[in-house]
Write a structure and sequence with these properties.
alpha+beta, five-stranded antiparallel β-sheet, globular, 4 helices, single chain
Length: 122
């Protein structure tokens, strides 16, 4: 799944658009919940060695909020990693290199949004 497809989905379903917050990382995009400004997803290009995976160059990842009980077991599944540059208990990184299906990626994006939404309501 490509980043633009994720952005199109987020705009259609959640009425959110990517924000590019860092001048030094122009490809890093944040998706925030409307009204709360809480992040529910981050898309980044990260070098494979920083993620601890084999190969050269960068890979695109999607960081999403995840239930801590689920996050631990997901790290054992191909295509899922501890949340890069995030709280490892509450965030996971999903490789956007075709390893994880589009349906699963969108499911985790939805779950992330729902987790943020439920906490914003408290």
């Amino acid at each position: 799944m490509k980043r633009q497809e994720i952005f199109d989905y987020a705009k259609k379903v959640y009425e959110t658009v990517p924000e590019y917050l860092w001048k030094q990382h122009p490809g890093y995009a944040v998706l925030r919940m409307k009204g709360t400004d809480k992040w529910y997803a981050v898309i980044m290009n990260v070098s494979r060695d920083k993620l601890g995976i084999e190969g050269d160059g960068e890979v695109e990842i999607l960081n999403v909020k995840c239930d801590p009980e689920m996050a631990g077991s997901l790290r054992q599944v191909q295509g899922f990693l501890p949340g890069y540059h995030m709280n490892k208990n509450n965030w996971i990184s999903i490789l956007l290199d075709g390893t994880v299906s589009e349906i699963k990626i969108l499911d985790f994006l939805d779950r992330s949004y729902e987790l943020i939404e439920s906490r914003a309501g408290k």
